[in-house]
Amino acid sequence: MPVRRDPRTGGWFFRTTVKTPDGKKLRLFGTPGVPGPYQDLAATKVGAQAAEQRAISEALHGKPIVQPTAIKEVPTIREYSEKFLVTYKPGSKPSTKLDKRQRLNAYILPALGHVRLDALRQEDIDQLVAQQLRRGLDRKTVNNITAVLSSLVKYAVKNKVIGPVDLSFTIKVQDSEIVAVAASDVDKLAAAADKRYHAAILLAADAGLRIGEIRALRWSEVNELAREISISQSYDRTGELTETKGWERRVVPISDRLWSALKKLHRVGPLVVSRLNGGALGYDAAREAVREIYAHAEVELPPKPWHSLRHSFGTGLANAGVPVHLIKVLMGHKSIETTLRYMHTDRGARRDAIAALRGSHVAAKTATST
């Protein structure tokens, strides 16, 4: 049969012989979806059949046939990974690039680095997922790993290194519940901190700043006349100054207690919350400091201490009845789906709702009996 599957790679190819009008016999063969004359065709059986018909047509009509030697070897995932890391989305934040490199080196390359890009199959991805789940990684973390592999493969397709693929890289994940610090605990944390971290805690809880945005906030972005903060930059985990997570500047009004905290700060440089010498706070230093503040204030430490304070800002807005589109703007979310998670996070409100429902049932029963 002219169209067949390579037992080593699982890829489809064709091999056939045609007789030209002048009586010559030509051997034709090729592979769809790889660099060469058939790279625009899908790497499937149908694609191989289309490639065969194209080759026969070209041979019979006297058109030049690209020799198989012109077809370049498709790289393995390991071979292509370095080009991917260097050239993919060159404007990405350094911390984002670092995360991709770490996930590739720790999880993807050890398992699939030897696999040729055009030979990657769904079962390879499924085995990678199963392996990481057995190691105890949660489903969201596994999806973060396979998302890197997905980006690499799609980048290879976009650059015509391989043909189009039909592979699934994600597994279903339940949305994790937002953990917000209670308002009373925010007060305890603020009271337990020095002036710098008192202001930092309120920048998160009263203005919704991420820790990277707090570390990068400059006095020039604090509008004393309008009592507003402009948020446009962030320090990532590697200490690089980048755009904010949503890549958009946002403006947030300053609450009374945050305004009071900011006025008490000693200005030693351009940054609002800085080291004692005016330099930027390090990521690790800020993380360790907030852990000590939680311990000193005797407040339960959440999984993400700084981000839970930002969640307090979002849930506070939602519980106050602020419209969802305005919460999205104040929080700096790119997607409304992210903001909607704040609309039903207050456990107390949910208990009240059930209690109200029970009360309505009791009232209805009483009215019926009378």
Features:
mainly alpha, DNA polymerase, domain 1, hpI Integrase, Chain A, 3 domains, three-stranded antiparallel β-sheet, 8 strands, elongated
Give the structure's gist in a few sentences.
With 370 residues, the protein is mainly alpha-helical.
Distance between the termini: 85 Å
Instruction: Tell the overall outline.
Output: elongated
* Number of spatially distinct domains: 3
Please give the number of β-strands: 8
Low-confidence stretches: 64-71
Rg for CA atoms:
29 Å
The order of strands across the largest sheet is 1-2-3
* Secondary structural class: mainly alpha
Helix/strand order: EEEHHHHHHHHEEEEEHHHHHH
What can you tell me about this protein's structure?
The chain has 370 residues and is mainly alpha-helical. It has 3 domains: 68 residues, no CATH class; 82 residues, Orthogonal Bundle (DNA polymerase, domain 1); 162 residues, Orthogonal Bundle (hpI Integrase, Chain A). Helices cover 49% and strands 9% of the residues. The protein is built from 14 helices and 8 strands. The protein has a 3-stranded antiparallel sheet, covered by helices on one side. Strand 2 and strand 3 form a beta hairpin. Helix 6 packs antiparallel against helix 7 and helix 7 packs across helix 11. It is elongated and about 95 Å long.
Topology summary:
Layout: E1 3-5, E2 12-19, E3 25-30, H1 45-60, H2 77-87, H3 94-112, H4 122-134, H5 139-158, H6 183-192, H7 195-205, H8 211-216, E4 222-223, E5 228-231, E6 233-235, E7 241-243, E8 250-253, H9 256-263, H10 283-297, H11 305-319, H12 324-331, H13 336-340, H14 347-369
Antiparallel strand pairs: 1-2, 2-3, 4-5, 5-8, 6-7
Helix pairs in contact: 2-3, 2-5, 3-5, 4-5, 6-7, 6-10, 7-9, 7-11
